[in-house]
From TrEMBL:
The gene is 106075384. This is Orc1-like AAA ATPase domain-containing protein. SUPFAM superfamilies: P-loop containing nucleoside triphosphate hydrolases (SSF52540). It comes from the Eukaryota. It comes from Biomphalaria glabrata (Bloodfluke planorb).
Length: 306
């Protein structure tokens, strides 16, 4: 099969990742939305970079739009990325609710819940949703039990009007939590052909036939950022879709493009790998090869080997 000659868009590489504003994962959204009830604890888990946090944000926005002025949704978002100290989680939880951590002493779960209770009751007519994003480091550091105790305590907080609080947490590591009010939503790799095509079309010009590109993305990428980068760099300035064979070649040779696909996670790479993993990478890659690339690209190569 002849290769379709496709070129990268004339625009320069943009290292800033974009938030995709296109409708995908409708089934997962509807499933999650049905679980966001007062008193529920919802774990949203799945592989890294598949859009778990963004999906939660989009669902809550949809709920607010549907409720309109009849019932306001108060969401409190706690960024837990790379946090291993449980006391830091307590502090960030208080900050998300506008409470100065220094005003809550001692820094215990009980004192934190007492302070939170006063905030929730001051807005008792609202639906309260507490969101802990990217919690995997807590489990990997051995703070899982304390964190789940906090989550359960928040879910059992009684707020007059709309009853209990809804708690959602996202992680690429599955937390072992069970209970009548505990729900699990798994977000897997993005492999639905309709979702992939929707992303490709949203971030590129009109291309009549995207079937080969969709199949390639399903087989080799499977996460939104990678699909978006392919669309922006190789479809935006071409009226024809490149063949699957051509796309495989660029994925193997265009390391700058691969670097951009993973740029949001490069800072996390070394927290995923232990000394033995790094030694393995060092022995497998000749020094002359590693010196060819920037530090960022070397980190990207390590990420791909993981």
């Amino acid at each position: 099969m002849d290769l379709i000659v496709a070129s990268r868009s004339n625009q320069s590489h943009n290292s800033q990742p974009k938030k995709f504003g296109v409708e995908i994962r409708r089934d997962e959204k509807d499933f999650l939305k049905a679980l966001l009830l007062p008193g529920n604890i919802v774990q949203v888990h799945g592989p890294p970079m598949v859009g778990k946090s963004m999906l939660v944000d989009q669902v809550i926005s949809e709920i607010q739009s549907e409720l309109g002025s009849t019932c306001k949704v108060h969401q409190y978002c706690v960024d837990c990325k790379n946090i291993t100290c449980f006391e830091d989680i307590l502090e960030r939880t208080l900050e998300s609710m506008g409470i100065a951590p220094a005003s809550v002493l001692p820094a215990t779960i009980e004192a934190t819940l007492t302070a939170i209770d006063s905030v929730l009751r001051s807005n008792s007519s609202c639906q309260h949703i507490v969101i802990f994003q990217k919690c995997q480091a807590l489990r990997l550091s051995g703070n899982e039990r304390k964190f789940l105790q906090l989550v359960a305590s928040l879910a059992y907080q009684n707020v007059s009007g709309n009853g209990k609080v809804t708690v959602v947490f996202t992680s690429f590591v599955d937390f072992l939590i069970q209970g009548a009010n505990v729900k699990h939503v798994y977000i897997g790799m993005l492999v639905d052909p309709h979702d992939i095509e929707a992303l490709l079309r949203h971030y590129s010009q009109e291309v009549e036939d995207l079937s080969e590109c969709v199949l390639f993305c399903k087989r080799f990428l499977g996460f939104p950022e990678g699909i978006i980068r392919i669309a922006e760099e190789y479809l935006l300035s071409n009226s024809n879709s490149p063949s699957g064979q051509y796309l495989e070649e660029i994925l193997n040779t265009d390391l700058e493009l691969v670097h951009l696909m993973f740029t949001k996670r490069l800072a996390d790479v070394f927290s995923w790998l232990d000394e033995q993993d790094l030694l393995f990478v060092y022995k497998c890659q000749p020094i002359s090869f590693l010196r060819t690339y920037s530090e960022g690209m070397c980190q990207c190569i390590i990420l791909l080997l993981k």
